[in-house]
Amino acid sequence: MIIEESKICYKCGKTATTNEHVPPKCLFPEQKDVGGIDYRKNLITVPSCEEHNAQKSNDDEFLLATIAGIVGNNVLGYVQTKTKVKRIHDRKGKKYIKEIAKDHKELTIKSKEGIEFSVMTGLFDNKRLIKCFQHIACGLYFHEFQKVFDGECPVFIAFTINDSENDENLKVWFKKEFELKSDKWLIKGANPNVFKYQFGEPDYNGLIPLRMTFYKGADVYVTFMDKTVKKPFDLTHALIEAGISTTVVLENGERIKFNTSK
Questions:
Q1: What is the pTM of this model?
Q2: What is the pLDDT of residues 18-62, one digit of tens each?
Q3: Residue ranges per domain, the chain?
Q4: Which of 191, 189, 150, 190 is nearest to 199 (CA)?
Q5: How far is Cα 136 from Cα 128, in angstroms, rounded to an integer?
Q6: CA 133 to CA 236: how far, in whole Å?
Q7: How far apart are CA 5 and CA 115, in angstroms?
């Protein structure tokens, strides 16, 4: 049902009492950190209740620290790590780092050009990260379609490293499938060097895909499955989960193998 954007919360449909930035405003650099350039212009906002805005500021800071320093991001992500993230760390102390990742280590890596970058490794709270991305995705859905999304929206994070070969291959599969399709999708976002997103057309099952890119290096993929849509059975996924040797052939002819040791 189409609703009045100024009346209800984008996430739960309750009475809205404030507005929320989608994605969180803290992800966009402050002018003082980037030589006066305004990366906070024309940001997307959606109506929100207190629960889904003011009470998640800690999650927003967690999200910033988790994705800003991803290897492969552009210089703006690195700047955020050295400025905004550092200020939060200075304010919160070691507690902040422990909130972000377990067994964290600070390393220095060198680019091909010989430039050194400080990075952090560790075990991140994946469930919390997914929750953050789901909030952003639902906000974008509301902004795009002017209605609250009611259903499931599984999130696939392309920039994390998985322990198992199958999980890594699944990441490659999803990423390549989205990249092949999203070439035709309209790119949106007033500040694409920080954040951009692309909605795809619903597939034959009624599932709506979304690709979000942060700092030009951290990709996140979401699939919206409305509660009225029957969850499709996927034979390929079923074979993989059953441990059966399976080969996936992409649209471009590339092959990805699963359970190769079986």
A1: 0.85
A2: 899 999 999 999 999 999 999 999 999 999 988 887 667 788 999
A3: 18-126, 151-258
A4: 189
A5: 13
A6: 26
A7: 46
